[in-house]
Amino acid sequence: MRRLVVLIAISLGVWLTPLGGQQQADPSAGRYVPGEIIVKFARGVSAARRNTLMAARSSTILRRFSELDLDHVRLPAGRSVAAALAELRANPEIEFAQPNYIYEAVTEPGPPNDPRWLDDSLWGLKKIAAREAWQAYGGGNGSVIVADIDTGVMYTHPDLAANMWHNPGEIAGNGTDDDLNGYVDDVYGIDTVNHDSNPMDDQGHGTHTSGTIAAVGNNGIGVAGVNWNAKILACKSFDATGVGSDAAIIQCFNYIVALRNRGENIRVSSNSWGGYRGGSISQALKNAVDAAGNVGILNVFSAGNDGRNIDVTPFDPASFPSSSVVSVAASDQSDNRASFSNY
Q1: Residue 140: strand pairing partners
Q2: Nearest Cα to 229, choosing from 218, 219, 214?
Q3: Is the peptide bond before 168 cis (omega within 30 degrees of 0)?
Q4: Cα–Cα distances in angstroms (integers) from residue 297 to residues 8, 292, 294, in the given order
Q5: Taking Cα atoms as reference points, which of 216, 214, 284 lies closest to residue 245?
Q6: In angstroms, rounded to a whole number, what is the distance separating the alpha carbons of residues 17 and 19?
Q7: Within 13 Å of residue 201, how many CA atoms lie on the same side as its CB?
């Protein structure tokens, strides 16, 4: 059995499971966006040839993820995903094709009502010996960037504003793609749901997880993050209802890999989401995660909250067999696995 690395999850708020999920009776029933697929063409197939192949099938390449060598494709009206995949998988110019899987936010069980929780809401920081780490090493020097792939971040929040990553190649508000990376005014990151460069959180979960990671410490307000000075790069790939797709998530990974290759010190991606595997692994998403790992980014994923062994019932991406993945379970105030937590 593959060894699963388990860390303490400090009040992450909600986990994410596949659309229509709640607690799925059949976790193998994958959900996906109708009329859309993700394609990886074989090596050497030119951009022109890719467009020709898709046009011949009345399909359109919506977006090319250049850092990951993947294409997000829209099928013609009335064309089923299953039929399109069967045809494309038989074509030697296609390395693989898959659905554009969907994931959805599910509320975590509420906090316990015992007085110790109410009196000490940040007990998780004590359990991971954060105080000792701060005393020995300080609160961080601000050199590390963490990419929060989530519902966005309220980058104006008083406990986060000072720790938001600012794109050094972009001039805010001038309506120009100054660093020529394909995004206009991507000062704090991007929004791959609404297809713009404003990753403002409209759901709350991403702001919550960002606060756990890097809320400004020792400033007399709010909470303290694990690292008081780390920079948060916001990549919004989940909408206001907590729903996101492979394509939106993959675009975020494509974005951070490009920035890492440009020299930005992105060392970690935080991913408090996931879903039970359908009929097969999402190869496109795995490729995206592996691409981030290959450039030195550690990818942290939630293990889920259904009390299941995810080596037996895979919960992806936490169950991906990828060397850059760290799967995080939840523990309680006694340092035991929380009853709801996957493992």
Answers
A1: none
A2: 214
A3: no
A4: 20, 5, 7
A5: 284
A6: 7
A7: 22
Contacts for 11 with CB less than 8 Å, ≥ 6 apart: 111, 121, 124, 208, 212
Domain 14-29+103-328 matches domain 32-101 at the CATH topology level: no
Between CA 98 and CA 343 the distance in angstroms is 27
Where do the domains of the chain lie? 14-29+103-328, 32-101
State pLDDT tens for residues 109-133: 443 232 332 346 777 888 888 888 8
pLDDT in tens, 82-98: 999 999 999 999 999 99
Q: Which residues contact 160 (CB under 8 A, 6 or more apart)?
A: 153, 154, 207, 210, 211, 214, 215, 216, 232
E strands, the chain, in order:
14-18, 32-41, 60-65, 70-74, 94-107, 145-150, 189-191, 231-236, 243-245, 266-271, 275-276, 298-302, 315-316, 325-328
Instruction: Give the fold, CATH level 3, of 14-29+103-328.
Output: Rossmann fold (3.40.50)
295-311, pLDDT tens digit by residue?
Answer: 999 999 999 999 999 99
> What architecture does CATH give domain 32-101?
2-Layer Sandwich (3.30)
Q: CA dist 56 to 43, 76, 201, Å? A: 20, 11, 39
Rounded CA separation 120/116 (Å): 6
Q: How would you classify the pairing of strands 189-191 and 231-236?
A: parallel
Q: Residue 229 class from Cβ within 10 Å (0-12 exposed, 13-18 middle, 19+ buried)?
A: middle
Query: What 8-state DSSP symbol labels residue 161?
Result: G
CA distance 99 to 31: 9
Provide the terminal-to-terminal Cα distance of the chain, rounded to the nearest Å.
Answer: 13
Q: Longest C-alpha distance within the chain, in Å?
A: 65
